[in-house]
Amino acid sequence: MNVLILTGHFGQGHFSAAQTLGDEIRRSFSDVNITLRDIFEYTIPNYSSRLYQGYTLLVNRAGKLYNWYYKFTENWKRDIHPPFCRYFQAKLKTLIAETKPDMIVSTLPFCSQLVSQYNLKNGQNIPLITCITDVSTHREWINPGTTMYLVPCEAVRQNLIEKGIAPGKVFISGIPVQEQFKANVHPLAKDGKHLLIMGGGLGMLPRAKSFYQGLNGLKDVKTTIITGKNRDLYQRIHGRYENIEVVGYTDQVYRYMQEADLVISKPGGITLFETIFSELPILVFSPYLQQEIKNAAFIENQKIGLVLPTRPEECVEEIERVIHNDTQLERLRANMQTFKAGIDSDAILKIVTGMRSGLEVRAS
Questions:
Q1: Which uninterrupted H or E stretch holds 282?
Q2: Are residues 320 and 348 in the same domain?
Q3: For labelling, which of 88, 100, 223, 267 has a CA lying 20 to 30 Å from the CA of 200?
Q4: Which residue ranges does the record assign to the Glycosyl transferase family 28 C-terminal domain (predicted)?
Q5: What are phi and psi of 226, to 5 degrees?
Q6: What is the pLDDT of residue 200?
Q7: Percent of the chain scoring above 90 in pLDDT
Q8: Residues 133 and 186 both lie in one domain
């Protein structure tokens, strides 16, 4: 059996989820061939890096425009077609001829749109599994050619059903995270508290000097800040504060989470579920992008974390209050455990098993 996984590098979340799904299938089925492709690196190899740079510039400098488009298309009644569809369809046809997939998995809306249109226009019926990587049912994720959906939570499942998706097609799988985040190893005893702060792959963190000064002054708290690919921030704060360790881009995030009492991050979908599986309470920076606003609302609704104030001084005060409140931290962890109980982490494996056997697969 051949499985083609399609994704993109708009941030690290989509690609990370794709890698995780590929790893899960590979561990369970030695005879399944996995091909993972960044759709833009494959189709426009000379321009993909510029595309991703442009996206980063858009969300950092023109967030209002991004949010306007997101809201404008969120509840469209008609299907959303990928731009330059004919060009990408031709490239996808070549990729499919090369890989001969029996199933395609997508962790990016663009890829789901592309495969759905390919199936419809070419009279094909290649099963398409769409993995939604935010707590969202934005119209861009919903396509007539999708066979199954992997969704983060019950609320997203219900929203898809309300929009006309058959219940048996929607699996509550959480957002896929690497196996290391599921170890849930926290030290039994240590000196003081350990705070972890992350800004995602792009290192989107506060710039105010007072924020870092406030963190450095927290009593009995050691702070680790992962700056990702934000070299400017790394250089500005590295080695400047005695109680703050600064780390650049790392693939050992799970280790830092295992050592932490509390994590602070922007509310990205992958990071959110990494903390859930690690049972690590989360505080999130006040969100601005629309999908992160939805993720932050989910955090508060599930009572697994809190949204921080916008002002740096108030932000530090809230961090200090929460990290020294063991009762609240335990309550947040307990809520994460309850939420995890409703996740079917083996959903992708059940789907692959059904596809291999030619049996109908339905979500319960």
A1: strand 282-284
A2: no
A3: 88
A4: 217-337
A5: -100, 110
A6: 65
A7: 65
A8: no
Tell me the chain's radius of gyration from C-alpha atoms.
21
Q: What is the CATH number of the domain that holds 209?
A: 3.40.50.2000
Under a CB-based contact definition with an 8 Å cutoff, are residues 299 and 305 in contact? yes
What pLDDT, on the 0 to 100 scale, is given for residue 58? 77
**Is residue 74 located within the same domain as residue 89?**
yes
How many CB atoms neighbour CB 242 within 10 A? 7
15-50 burial string, b = 16+ CB within 10 Å, else e?
A: bbbbbbbbebbeeebeebebbbbbbbbbbbeeebee
Q: Which token pair is 303? A: 């009572």
pLDDT by residue (tens digit) across 14-47? 999 999 999 999 999 999 999 999 999 999 999 9
Q: Same domain for 199 and 315? A: yes
Tokens of residue 160, six digits: 């898809």
Domain that holds residue 151: 2-174+343-357
**What digits encode the pLDDT tens for the residues 73-110?**
777 766 677 778 889 999 999 999 999 999 999 999 99
What confidence tens digit (pLDDT) does each residue in 41-81 have? 999 999 988 988 887 777 777 778 877 877 877 777 666 77
- Helix axis angle for 312-323 and 209-216, nearest 10°, is 20
* CA distance linking residue 277 with residue 24, whole number of Å: 16
d(CA 107, CA 24): 15
Per the CB < 8 A criterion, the answer to whether 269 and 295 are in contact is: yes
Looking at residue 327, what is its pLDDT? 95
Does any domain span residue 362? no
- Asked, for residue 363, whether it belongs to a domain, the answer is no
Six-digit token string for 282: 């989360």
Residues 291 and 323 in one domain: yes
Averaged over 240-244, what is the pLDDT? 94
Length of the chain: 364
Structure tokens at 136: 């969202």
Q: What burial class does residue 120 get, using C-beta atoms within 10 Å of its C-beta: 0-12 exposed, 13-18 middle, 19+ buried? A: middle
The larger pLDDT score, comparing residue 69 to residue 287, is at 287
8 A C-beta contact, residue 283 and residue 304: no
